[in-house]
Structure formats: structure tokens, C-alpha cells
Design a protein that fits this description.
- The chain is of the alpha/beta class and 124 residues long.
- It has one domain: 5'-nuclease (Rossmann fold, 3-Layer(aba) Sandwich), CATH 3.40.50.
- It is built from 7 helices and 5 strands; from the N terminus they run βααβααβααβαβ.
- The protein has a 5-stranded parallel β-sheet with strand order 3-2-1-4-5, sandwiched between helices.
């Protein structure tokens, strides 16, 4: 399974945060799963670190190396999908992540109920 990990998943996973569901943890640790993060997520983590909104100090390259995931560029064609998403979620970063998951045919791993209400493959 090709998994695109939401920001909070990348923050919670290295610490074994109990908010991660069993289904999410099993899918992420399944050797058959391919793990990805969007450049949008990498930017959001760097921004949260810069503003001291999260305790995580490792940069995205270190997190990617530890988790064995690839950080993907945001696809140029995703703006078209993002611009036409229903007005359920107002956070532009999350809307970009949804569009990235749709364009790349990923399963989006997220706790965010609003994101999961879109027509995007998701897991939680």
C-alpha cells in the first residue's frame, strides 16, 4: 500500500504516541507498505518547529531516514483538484495534502475527520 502520512502522524510516530490507531500503526510498519510524505508536510513541520509549536527537533530529512520514507515534491497538477474540493476543510495545507493524495493515488493516513470526509482513500 502506498501511504501518504499527514503531519501529525509524522510527529506522533517516532515517539509511539498512543493517539496513533492500531490500524495506522500496522499499515505503516507493514513491510509491504511504501511510505511517503508530501513536501507540503515537510514545510508544515519546519514551520511548526520554527514557531516552536512542536517539541520535535529533528528535521524532515532525519525523520524520513529513520522512517524509511520518501519526501515527494508537490505535483503541479494538484492545484486543479485542490481548487475544486468541496468546502469541508478550510486549512489550505490540508487541502493541498488531499489533492496530493488524489493525484498520486495514495492512501492518506490521518486522524483528521474532516480530511477523511473527502473522496480520498484514507486510513485511520
Amino acid at each position: 500500500m502506498r501511504l501518504l502520512l499527514d503531519t501529525h502522524v509524522l510527529i506522533w510516530l517516532p515517539t509511539g504516541d498512543p493517539r496513533l490507531t492500531k490500524a495506522a500503526r500496522e499499515a505503516i510498519t507493514d513491510p509491504k507498505s511504501e511510505l511517503f510524505a508530501s513536501a507540503v508536510t515537510a514545510f508544515e513541520i519546519a514551520d511548526l518547529q520554527h514557531r516552536k509549536r512542536i517539541a520535535m527537533t529533528e528535521d524532515m530529512a532525519a525523520v524520513a531516514a529513520v522512517l524509511g520514507l520518501a519526501v515527494l515534491d508537490f505535483p503541479a497538477e494538484a492545484w486543479k483538484i485542490g481548487a475544486n474540493l468541496p468546502d469541508i476543510h478550510r486549512d489550505p495545507v490540508d487541502r493541498m495534502l488531499i489533492a496530493h493524495a488524489i493525484v498520486g493515488d495514495f492512501t492518506l493516513v490521518t486522524a483528521d475527520k474532516a480530511i477523511r470526509s473527502y473522496s480520498v482513500k484514507s486510513l485511520w
